[in-house]
Design a protein that fits this description.
Layout: H1 3-9, H2 12-21, H3 35-48, H4 52-70
Length: about 70
């Protein structure tokens, strides 16, 4: 999935939760930024640590969970 898909499909609270669960620690300056900027920062951390696929799968799961809750 593309970064734009993640930022548009997953709310920032899910993005923060996923990033924290994958040890892509959220820096203090990440709080309060727009979702696209936040997604970019988290993606950069995942890429540097070789965890992009894992991040994508976790975000897909979070989105699927949200969709199931909305039914």
């Amino acid at each position: 999935r593309s970064l734009c898909d993640w930022s548009s499909d997953v709310c920032s609270s899910d993005l923060l939760r996923v990033a924290q669960s994958l040890d892509l620690l959220v820096e203090p300056d990440d709080r309060g930024v727009d979702d696209v900027t936040l997604a970019g920062r988290i993606y950069d951390r995942a890429r540097r640590r070789g965890r992009v696929v894992e991040l994508g799968k976790a975000l897909d799961a979070a989105h699927a969970e949200e969709a199931a809750d909305g039914e």
